[in-house]
Amino acid sequence: MIRLPDDAPFTPEQRAWLQDFLSKALAGAAIPSAPAGPAVPATILWGSQTGNAEGLARKLIKRLKKGNFEPESFDMADYDRERLPKEKNLLIITSTYGDGEPPDNAADLYEWILSDEAPQLEGVSYTVLALGDSGYPDFCKCGIDFDERLAALGAKRIVDRVDCDVDFDAEFKQWSEGIIAELAPEVQVMPGPVDALDQTDDGYSKKHPFPSPILKNYNLNTGGAKETHHVELSLEGSGLEYQVGDALGLVPANPPEVVDEILANLPFNTDTEVPLPDGSEGPLREALIRHYDIGTINKSMIQKWQERSGSPYLRALVEADDRKAYEDFSWGRDLIDLVCDHPADFSDGEDFVGILKKLQPRLYSIASSPNAHPGEVHLCVGIVRYESHGRSRGGICSTYLSDRSEGENPGVFVHSNKAFRLPESGDTPLIMVGPGTGIAPFRAFLEERKISGAKGGNWLLFGNPHRESDFLYEDELTAFQKEGVLQRLDLAWSRDQKEKVYVQHLMLQNGAELWKWLQDGAAFYVCGDASRMAKDVDAALHSVAEEHGGMSADEAVEFVKQLKKDKRYQRDVY
C-alpha cells in the first residue's frame, strides 16, 4: 500500500482515502477516470429568511458540479411551479422562522404545494434538508411540511429528510453525500472538511470569529422599564466587510455565578477537564461559561435528563409526550432548574456535557453603514430581563453585553442577508417600519442614503412604550429630518395614552399617503418581532391596498405578493 509522507497536508480521512486510491491505481484496479453515462439533472429550491439556506444551496451547486450532475438552483419565489411535475430530482433546502412559518421567499410555493391545486408528482424524486432551531416548538416545520406533502403527492424520496439544528454543516455534508451516493454512485468524492458559511478570505467566520474590541456600550433609554444598548465594535484588522441590511453574529458567555451554582449541585468532582465542541478539551467551569448552552431547555434535553434522573415529574412528562406540556415546563426555565429541582446521576463531566448543546452565537441586525463608520460595526440590542420560578433571569447574549462584557473582545462574524437590501437606485423612495430595536437596520439605511446622496424620499415609522424614556436615537433622527434625509417620521408611543397605539395603527391612519408612496414606486421594509408585529403590519398593508387602492381582498393579496417578487417588500424579522 502507498504511504504518504507524514507531513502531507491532509486530514486523516483524506489521507486514508488518497492512499487507498493511489494503491488501487498502481495495482491496476479499475478506477473511474470520469463519470460515466448521461449527466444527472438536479433542481435545487431554497427558502431562506436570513441567508443560511441560500448559502447551502450555493455550496450544493458547487459540490454537484464536481460530479456527473447538471444542477440548477432557484429562489423559491422565482421558481416556475409548472415545472414541478416534470422534475427528475428535486433537492429542497428550507429554513423555518417565527411560529413554524415558511421564509418569505418560500411562502407562495409552500401555500400552493399544501393546497388542493398542487399536482400529482409520480415520477419526481426528491429530498429535503430542513433548517431550524430545536429551542422552538415548531422545529423545522416548513421542511417537514414540504417533505410530507411531496410524499403525499406521489413523489419518491431520494434520501430521507435531514433536520438540522443551528449547527448544520455536518448534517449538510451527510445529506449531500447521500444524494451523490444515490444518484451518481460511480462518482468518487474525496473526503473534505466541513466548510462553514460566512467564511472570509482572512478566515474569520462563524467557526473562527474575530475577537472584536468594544469601543462604546451604553443604554439608549433614559429611565423607564426598558433597557436598550447601543454597542460599537471595532473590525480593524479583521478583513470583515458588510453591507447595510446584513447581520452580525456575536459569541456570548454565560453568567459565571449561574455556572458556579450548577457546579455546586452536580454529583461528581467538577474540577476536571471535559471535551469541548471543537474537539479540544478544557476545564468544566470554562466549558460551561464559554462553550455550552445552559440557557435553554427543550423536549430533547428533558428526555435526556429524565434518563439520568429519578424525578417522577419528569418521568410523567416524558411518558405523556404532550407538546404543550413540554412547552409549558420549558418556558422560563434553564439548565439550573433541572440541576437543582430534578437531580440527575452523571458519572463525570464528560457524561454531563455530552447532553448539552453548543453555545451558539446570536445574530443582530447591523445598525450602521460601513461607509459612515469605517472599521466599525454598530448594534442596537434590547436587554432581556425577567423573573420566573423564583429566579431573576435574562437573555444570555443581551445580558452578556450589558453586564459582563467589560474588558472582553467578543467573537464576531458577518452574516450576509441578501434578502434585506437597499434598492439599486437611490431614487427609490423607502418606507421603513421598525419599532423597538427594529430601528437598527433603518439607522444604517439612513446613514447610507445620506452618505451616498440618494434622492429618494425616506419615511420611518417607529414605536416604543414611552416617548420620554424610549425614543431611541432621537437626536440622530431629528438631525436626519433637519438635513432633509428623513422626509417623514411617524411615532407610536403605546403607553403614553389610554388607547394603545402601534406602528400598524400609524399605517392605517396614514393609509392614503402610504398608498401614494407605494404607487410612486416606494420599497416597503419591516424589521422586528415576527410573531406579532410583523403579522399586524402585513395585515395593515393589505388593508391599505383594499381601502386606498380600491382592491378586493384577493386583489390585495396578489398586490402584496407582487411587491415581494419585485423585492419591494422585504422583512428582517425574528
Structural account:
The chain is an alpha/beta fold and 574 residues long. It folds into five domains: 1-31, no CATH class; 33-183, 3-Layer(aba) Sandwich (Rossmann fold), CATH 3.40.50.360; 210-252 and 361-415, Elongation Factor Tu (Ef-tu), domain 3; 256-353, NADPH-cytochrome p450 Reductase, Chain A, domain 3 (Up-down Bundle); 430-573, 3-Layer(aba) Sandwich (Rossmann fold). The protein is 35% helix and 19% strand. The protein contains 20 helices and 22 strands. The strands form six sheets. Strands 1, 2, 3, 4, 5 and 6 form a six-stranded parallel β-sheet that branches. A five-stranded parallel β-sheet has the order 20-19-18-21-22, with helices on both faces. Strand 8 (214-219) and strand 9 (228-234) form a beta hairpin. Helix 18 (511-519) packs across helix 19 and helix 19 (533-549) packs across helix 20. It is globular. The model is unreliable at 30-34 and 198-202 (pLDDT under 50).
Report a brief summary of the structure.
The chain folds into five domains: 1-31, no CATH class; 33-183, 3-Layer(aba) Sandwich (Rossmann fold), CATH 3.40.50; 210-252 and 361-415, Beta Barrel (Elongation Factor Tu (Ef-tu), domain 3); 256-353, NADPH-cytochrome p450 Reductase, Chain A, domain 3; 430-573, 3-Layer(aba) Sandwich (Rossmann fold). It is 35% helix and 19% strand.
Features:
alpha/beta, 5 domains, 22 strands, Rossmann fold, Elongation Factor Tu (Ef-tu), domain 3, 574 residues, six-stranded parallel β-sheet
